[in-house]
């Protein structure tokens, strides 16, 4: 008897030590980010890339490089009121709450109950009425011996980080959409200004043609052709209103307002084109893994799926549940504190599923397949990001060359128009020559304005493609205090190694 008393604490201590050792393990594979063969440089290059490109400053509001106060106000309004951003913020809060709920699995569950009742009974023909009063506190705890809870917390934290990155991606997408729509709208304003100047020139040409006709040196067909040219330009100018209205409506929705509640005044006539295509440092291809929020979200989803494998495999092992309860129970409150009225219990349950018809195996296979799908999605997201950067670098390079050639075409067509008008006044050429020269000038000038708009839109797309200054270091790390209280080490910040 004494021997058992001496060995009991030793066995208990040994069992506790074994449980603590097992608690240091976690079922399932440890996470390793899927490796990819990254190129050392982009295929496309251009004069806007510096010799040593750097990252966009994440503290700098990238849209301010365009130097337009109206654009700055619109982007800020979108940040505050856009409903897509609001939805992403709510989803992020939801993901954080799920992570907090998973972390609660580290702790015991404690409950309290109070009851009172009266009952009438018949014992041997004697009716008796008795009362009962009880109060109890119950506690149960399932130690995380196989790391199932830790893997669930790991999965939930990674999902929350993915949601946070998705929020950043949504915000960047909306900012870029506002900037692109605004710049396109201003390009339309410049086209309208161009048409206003062209209509004035065509009106003067019509007046000249009528004078030539009255003097008998021009045909009536010249007057009709000049009138047709003027009216055609007027119709084309009116048609621009539809494009401008649609862009204005799109900006209204992006900033969280109904189109009827929003208007954007046109640029003053004759105001010079003030937007310049800003230089965008693109960095190296490996930088995208840190600077693109959609890539970071995809990578965090892979981490969450990897932890899900551990959650599934922890179900193969037995579960240990420790329970305790204590309280008072008696026929009256006064008897609660007597020895018979005090009750307590301690217990332990070790349970293992012997047969489940392949349920755990199926869930394990499901978790592995989910990981493979997430890894493939991550790699596809990275490849898509490379394509976006290359596409926009290529677009900017081509548009830069095209714009220079178009500027030369504009200069040549203006000279041709001037010479044709001079010859027409002198009576040495027909009005057809003037009409052709003027139509070519309008076409070339309109193309030049559209090219500048396309350059600005492509520059915004490139800023978006390289992450807009965002960094994976901005992702919130799991709550270190809560992890420490649960005996778990805090997770490292999920920044991505550029050398991989």
Kindly describe this structure.
The chain is of the alpha+beta class and 500 residues long. A hairpin with a 2-residue loop joins strand 1 and strand 2. A four-stranded antiparallel sheet has the order 1-2-3-4, with no helix packed on it.
Element layout with pairings:
Elements: H1 2-23, H2 69-81, H3 83-103, E1 109-123, E2 126-141, H4 148-214, H5 220-254, H6 288-291, H7 293-314, E3 319-330, E4 342-351, H8 359-425, H9 431-465, H10 480-485
Antiparallel strand pairs: 1-2, 2-3, 3-4
**What percentage of amino acids are in beta strands?**
5-15%
Secondary structure tally: strands: 4
In whole angstroms, the N-to-C terminal distance is: 64 Å
Order of helix and strand elements from N to C terminus: HHHEEHHHHEEHHH
Poorly predicted residue ranges: 1-20, 47-58, 481-487, 489-500
SSE-based structural type: alpha+beta
Query: What integer is the average pLDDT?
Result: 85
Number of helices: 10
Q: How would you sum up the major sheet? A: 4 strands, antiparallel
The helicity comes to 55-70%
Radius of gyration: 37 Å
Across the major sheet, the strand order is 1-2-3-4
Oligomer: single chain
General shape:
elongated
Keywords:
single chain, 500 residues, alpha+beta, 10 helices, disordered N terminus, disordered C terminus
Give a brief rundown of this model.
It is built from 10 helices and 4 strands, in the order H-H-H-E-E-H-H-H-H-E-E-H-H-H. With 500 residues, it is of the alpha+beta class. Residues 1-20, 47-58, 481-487 and 489-500 have low confidence and may be disordered.
